[in-house]
Design a protein that fits this description.
This protein is 36% helix and 27% strand. It has a seven-stranded mixed β-sheet with strand order 9-8-10-11-7-12-15, sandwiched between helices. Strand 5 and strand 6 (131-139) form a beta hairpin. It is an alpha/beta fold and 419 residues long. Helix 3 crosses helix 4 (83-94), helix 10 runs antiparallel to helix 12 (368-375) and helix 12 (368-375) runs antiparallel to helix 13 (380-389). It has helices at 5-13, 19-28, 32-47, 83-94, 155-165, 182-193, 227-234, 250-261, 278-284, 289-295, 320-330, 368-375, 380-389, 395-404, 410-417; strands at 50-57, 61-68, 71-79, 105-113, 117-128, 131-139, 170-175, 200-204, 215-218, 241-244, 265-270, 296-308, 313-317, 339-343, 354-365.
């Protein structure tokens, strides 16, 4: 699809650059405008609360998309003829090879944001049919001051997590797909546990936020520092609490379980769809079921849903038929509650109706019944049903309650749980 030149000018102008001066600089072949363009794009993304910037090359234009509150939005269109210069500028900032165009490259740099300071930018570049694609992840230098409550933990779920983190050893696992807030949950727990009396060491890929007083190690495949090797060396450093960014292979799983068995509290993440699937996943990684049942304290399954904008929140009443269909779709007890909420869209939320995100959770506590089910290698469905029978609130139930409470919308809940 051919980009409209007026639209392109408008989009370039919207990041704080004067159209005429940009055109003049481009005609002169000056690098000044490209530097300003890239800096302006990153600053605009930061101010728009974006977590990621996607630079997508197409046949006759370059499309820029921003991920805000977990959803991608078309934001700018750049002319095709400045594509290589934009890519080169980002490569230079990231310390990547500018003469390599057929291989994937990863890098990182710090960007200056006016009136804010510096923000870390993680860069991933990959070759595509129409040129090199770039995804930039914006990382705040310091972890935000979240609490378990502000993350969305409530009631029994909150109590279970608080109880699990007071245990001196064992494993706390956060599960969910990429971008579901697992790392933020673990960071929040670490900050609660962080006192002068304990030693906390993490190994991550990458280190997303710096936490003062905690030793954080970055995985480095070029030097052979993998999760497994890093975890082995960490255990010789006399830690009380260890966080492993992700358990992704047999070696890491084995060492993590042994660490939890030998008096360490170990926090980590797993890529599974729900809490119950964590156990078969560990078995697939050759961890013996009796070791899993005796080391795992709690498994937190989670997703992130967008919160309704408080400035334009309005009531939405469902009919009996809509409520019945909703209950069948989500497999929840809808009761007689017909009043839900939605955002109409305003300047505050950029007409999206949403502003910010919150977690929906299921917290699977390991009781005797679950322990026995793990030992006999029960499948995830059986473990999940046992957990529900023993009082576990599922992610869908938690999300449905948050919709009733006016925190999120039913549409958002359906979008997230059906992904």
């Amino acid at each position: 699809m051919k980009a409209d030149s007026k639209q392109s000018e408008k989009e370039v102008d919207s990041i704080g650059l004067d159209n005429t001066s940009v055109e003049k600089e481009l005609k002169k072949g000056s690098s000044l405008s490209i530097i300003s363009l890239v800096d302006g794009m990153i600053e605009h993304a930061y101010n728009a609360r974006a977590s990621d910037i996607h630079v997508d090359p197409e046949e006759q234009r370059v499309r820029i998309r921003l991920r805000v509150d977990g959803v991608l939005h078309d934001t700018f269109v750049f002319p095709k003829d400045i594509q290589s210069e934009v890519v080169t500028r980002i490569k230079v900032l990231s310390g990547l090879r500018t003469d390599e165009h057929q291989a994937a490259q990863d890098g990182r740099f710090r960007a200056a944001i006016k009136d804010v300071g510096y923000v870390d930018v993680r860069v991933s570049i990959a070759p595509t049919y129409y040129g090199e694609n770039i995804v930039m992840r914006l990382l705040a230098e310091k972890a935000e001051p979240f609490s378990l409550e502000t993350l969305g933990f409530v009631g029994k779920d909150l109590d279970r997590v608080k109880k699990a983190i007071t245990k001196p050893y064992g494993m706390i696992l956060a599960t969910g797909p990429t971008g579901s807030g697992k790392t933020t949950t673990l960071y929040t727990i670490l900050k609660i546990l962080h006192t002068p009396e304990v030693s906390i060491i993490t190994i991550e890929d990458p280190v997303e936020y710096a936490i003062e007083g905690i030793d954080q190690i970055q995985v480095n495949s070029r030097t052979g520092l993998t999760f497994g090797k890093g975890l082995r060396s960490i255990l010789r450093q006399d830690p009380n609490i260890v966080m492993v960014g992700e358990i992704r292979d047999e070696e890491t799983a084995e060492i993590a379980v042994n660490a939890a068995l030998t008096g360490h509290l170990l926090l980590s993440t797993l890529h599974t769809n729900d809490a119950a699937t964590a156990f078969p996943r560990l078995v697939d990684m050759k961890v013996e079921p009796f070791l899993i049942s005796s080391t795992v304290n709690v498994v937190v399954g989670q997703r992130l849903v967008r919160k309704i904008c408080e400035k334009c929140k309005t009531k939405k009443t469902l009919t009996d038929m809509e409520l019945k269909s909703l209950a069948e779709l989500l497999k929840v007890e809808a009761g007689k509650n017909k009043v839900f909420y939605e955002g109409k869209g305003c300047k505050e939320c950029d007409d999206s109706g949403y502003r910010g995100r919150i977690g929906i959770h299921e917290v699977l506590d390991i009781d005797n019944e679950i322990r026995l089910a793990i030992m006999r290698r029960a499948n995830a469905d059986e473990i999940k049903q046992l957990a529900i029978k023993n009082g576990m609130t599922t992610m869908v139930q938690d999300g449905f309650q948050k919709a009733l409470d006016g925190i999120t919308t039913i549409d958002e809940l359906i979008r997230v749980v059906r992904e």
